[in-house]
């Protein structure tokens, strides 16, 4: 697989994402269902967004790993949040650590939604290549 990052500017580097990623010569593409703070028994977390984000990341890492892919090859990540303000001001450090841990270079979209399933406040939707 060959990945090329396009960043006409540098400001997005502080936000832990890139403007565009071109992927060629792939041997597979994994489209992950939205991963949220759902425990192994299927129950939704009712914890704060910060705690839910940590569990959602853990779940995303598990799905990607179980499929034989690597988080470092996430090329598109959509974040659904019931409060973008809370995500940016109280959770962004966890997101940055996740990106740094896997040396990710991914395009990101952050969306505020009215609600998610049950008591959930954050959901991660990823596309991963190999």
UniProtKB/TrEMBL annotation:
Highest taxon in the source lineage: Bacteria
InterPro entries registered for this protein in UniProt: RutC-like_sf, YjgF/YER057c/UK114
Name the record gives this protein: Enamine deaminase RidA, house cleaning of reactive enamine intermediates, YjgF/YER057c/UK114 family
Organism (species): Spirosoma fluviale
Species lineage: Bacteria, Pseudomonadati, Bacteroidota, Cytophagia, Cytophagales
